[in-house]
Amino acid sequence: MKIQQLEYVIAIAQEGSIARAAKQLFQAQPNISIALKELETELGIQIFNRTPNGMVLTPEGEEFLGRATSIVNDIHSLERDYLNRNSSEISMNIGISRSSFITAAIGEFISKHEGESEKMEINLTESDTNRVMNETCIGKYDVGVLRIPENYYEMTEKVIDSKNLISKVLLEYRFAVAIHRSHPLARFDDIPFEELKRYPEIYNGINEPDMLRRASVNANYEDISSNKRINVLDRGSQVSIMATVRDAFMWVLPIKNPIMETAGIVIKKCSYAQQVNKDIIVYRRSSESNPLVMDCVNTLITFGDKIKNEIIK
């Protein structure tokens, strides 16, 4: 049994297919298929059922995945801790899902540490919530920041705990609406949803389901995706779209954003948004002994506390 085989199993379970796992790991699909078959033969168990809808874990596979994840997590943590101990390089990998204020907080963290070493590498990656959580668990990210509707919070906390992660709440809020200042509805202090829903909506990537709107905006959120929907994942492109498609809108964190303001975008209250959302930070339990990771965590928490008074109510 090899560590690489365990990493393959984890990736297949996350992606639901060998093809997508191969893409994620930058490996040839046949290599992963062969490695999985060899592992199942060696252990005498079937880890996955091959179905028309993809790879599904067997009961034995579920148990194996839990133990494999723990082992890979510990190995990556051990390797990282000792490599960092013997190196003057500052390295940090952070995954975020939709938490735009985090970039400013990471900027504070970088400013604090950039003079401590001649070599620094900070990787900030935006992805979807499940991937950020899973990849923090397996060690791809040192710290993850998730956006969770309050209705999903209790269930998400159970998943976080099962992955041996620690979570802390950074912010709680209801969404506001971002629109260009020349938008026909910019004259309203509190934008009426009946008017808003006529315009193109920017979604946070193609995988964002309509049901998330009902959890994060309003329990009775109407399905308007069949009308005008623009799918964009990264925040910079979203800002560019709103600056040019000036009747588009997007649900955002209710805090003034200097980058958006520079692009002529304003943040407006919309009373239709009734659901509470939480931005939370996650990190591995084993990272509690890593001073750099914990300083990053504490910097984010302090920054979150600082901007709570700026939330538009």
Task: Describe the overall structure.
By secondary structure, the chain is of the alpha/beta class. The chain is built from 12 helices and 12 strands. It has a 5-stranded mixed β-sheet with strand order 4-3-5-12-6, with helices on both faces. Helix 1 packs across helix 2 and helix 1 (3-15) crosses helix 4 (59-85). The longest helix has 27 residues, at 59-85. 33% of the residues are buried.
Keywords:
313 residues; alpha/beta; Arc Repressor Mutant, subunit A; D-Maltodextrin-Binding Protein, domain 2; 3 domains; 5-stranded mixed sheet; 3-stranded antiparallel sheet; 12 helices; 12 strands
Element layout with pairings:
Blueprint lengths: L2 H13 L2 H8 L3 H15 L4 E4 L2 E4 L1 H27 L4 E7 L5 H12 L6 E7 L2 H9 L5 E7 H13 L2 E9 L2 E5 L12 H4 L4 E4 L5 H7 L12 E4 L2 H10 L4 E4 L5 H5 L2 E4 L8 E8 L6 H17 L6
Parallel strand pairs: 3-4, 3-5, 8-9
Antiparallel strand pairs: 1-2, 5-12, 6-12, 7-10, 7-11
Describe, in short, the structure shown:
With 313 residues, this protein is of the alpha/beta class. 45% of the residues lie in helices and 21% in strands. It has twelve helices and twelve strands.
Helicity range: 40-55%
Treating each run of at least 4 consecutive H or I residues as one helix, how many helices?
A: 12
Spatial strand order of the main sheet: 4-3-5-12-6
CATH superfamily of the largest domain: Periplasmic binding protein-like II
Structural class: alpha/beta
- Strand-residue proportion: 15-25%
Roughly how many Å apart are the termini? 55 Å
Supply the number of structural domains: 3
The biggest sheet, with number of strands, parallel, antiparallel or mixed sense and barrel status, is: 5 strands, mixed
The ordered string of helix (H) and strand (E) elements is HHHEEHEHEHEHEEHEHEHEHEEH
Would you give the CATH topology of the largest domain? D-Maltodextrin-Binding Protein, domain 2
CATH class of the largest domain: Alpha Beta
Compute the average pLDDT: 86
Shape: globular
Uncertain residue ranges: none
Strands, count: 12
Q: What value does the Rg take, in angstroms?
A: 21 Å
